[in-house]
Amino acid sequence: MAIIDAIEAIFLAFLAVIANLFAGMIAGVLLVKEIVFKVFGLNKPVPHPRSILITGASSGIGAELAVRYAKPRTRLILVARNVTRLEKVKKQCEEKGATVEIASLDMSDSKAVKSYMEEVDKRVNIDLVVANAGISMTPPKEGELFSDAAQRLFDVNVFGVFHTIAPIMEGMRHRGRGQVAIMSSLSGIFSHPNLSYYGASKSALVAFSRHFRPVAAEQGIRLTCICPGFVETPLVQEMRDAGGKLPGFAVMDVKAAAKVITKGLERDRPVIIFPAIQYWPVHMTSTMPPFIQAFWNYMALKYPLAGSRQS
Ligand SMILES: NC(=O)c1ccc[n+]([C@@H]2O[C@H](COP(=O)([O-])OP(=O)(O)OC[C@H]3O[C@@H](n4cnc5c(N)ncnc54)[C@H](OP(=O)(O)O)[C@@H]3O)[C@@H](O)[C@H]2O)c1
Ligand SMILES: *[C@@H]1O[C@H](CO)[C@@H](O)[C@H](O)[C@H]1NC(C)=O
Ligand SMILES: *[C@@H]1O[C@H](CO)[C@@H](O)[C@H](O)[C@H]1NC(C)=O
User: What start and end residues bound the annotated signal peptide (predicted)?
Assistant: First the structure.
């Protein structure tokens, strides 16, 4: 590492201080605006969604969101592959008074996903779609390359999301309203080196959401990116089984996570990112110069916390 790198880093740190001062000023202005709007009752809350489609609703965060949204006069459309598990979630939601429909779909089957989403949106006019289905990367099978496993991962995590939301957004555009939630991850901001492919798939969703939100807004559609840290679900258990070291205290309860997500969607937040204790260090690292990130990665491999190696 040359001296020039260190000088550049100091200069960037200086710029970061100025940028953050500006951010602080904008935050102050927004705070005053919020208080004024609250006092005069000018805030327009997001209307309660009546028809909600959730992918990956058979387990974990998706199932918990379904149960949270379940109430009378609400129609839920729950999508995943495993019908046995979908039926179980369906029953729980019906007990809370919701009307529930399930669909067994593999997110990597682009044709089936597109035609189902188009059909269901024509029939029920979706108010809120939560594109949540996702997998972590399991090591490649015997004789397979890592790129083959990565292809499967991107088919589900990235293209599965696009094929879910695009046909529904087409309908929302005509209706001039709707809400779209895309499930990314803190790994999409800055990931553990053991999760490089998974992190890359989630980064694609962060980048897409960030740039697409204003485009969607022009069509009356609210678009939110969800970036949770570790949440106690079968996905995290899978990482543990693959040798990942995830201490219990670093993993959030799934009920608490679902609550944060629904509250954030009610407020139409651009990004729902939590818990703060994980978000802050991850965010800070993501803004640091590359040689500091490389050092962080080196430490993360030496003193591991998460994931199993993907390369
Ligand atoms: N848990 C965490 O720490 C964490 C953190 C950040 C982000 N996330 C993200 O949150 C989302 C949900 O994860 P989770 O933790 O709740 O994991 P999970 O319990 O394993 O749930 C994953 C869901 O996705 C579905 N799914 C997986 N592959 C599918 C496919 N090919 N086609 C259709 N559905 C498929 C699964 O259902 P079937 O098996 O029945 O198909 C299941 O309902 C994922 O996108 C994940 O990346 C999780
Ligand atoms: C579906 O889930 C049930 C319950 O978890 C499990 O017993 C069954 O093997 C799963 N089916 C498939 C096809 O994966
Ligand atoms: C990363 O992967 C290696 C090799 O699979 C494994 O030994 C290590 O425990 C993993 N690190 C973490 C943090 O899980």
Answer: none
CA of 183 to the centre of ligand 1 (A): 9
What are the 10-residue block averages of pLDDT along the chain, 311 residues in total? 87 93 96 94 85 98 98 97 98 98 98 98 98 88 88 97 98 97 96 89 98 96 97 90 79 96 96 94 90 87 64 48
Q: Is residue 152 part of a domain?
A: yes
Instruction: Confirm whether 309 is domain-assigned.
Output: no
Q: What residue ranges line ligand 3, CB within 6 angstroms? A: 194, 243-245, 304-309
Range of the domain at 113: 44-302
103, part of any domain: yes
User: In the chain, which ranges are continuous DSSP H helix?
Assistant: 3-39, 60-69, 83-95, 110-124, 146-154, 160-175, 196-218, 234-241, 254-266, 276-286, 290-302
* Ligand 3 atom nearest to CA at 193: 1
Q: How far is the CA of 194 from the centre of ligand 3 (A)?
A: 6
CATH number at residue 52: 3.40.50.720
- Residue 81's DSSP bridge partners are none
Report the atom number in ligand 3 closest to the C-alpha of 194. Answer: 1
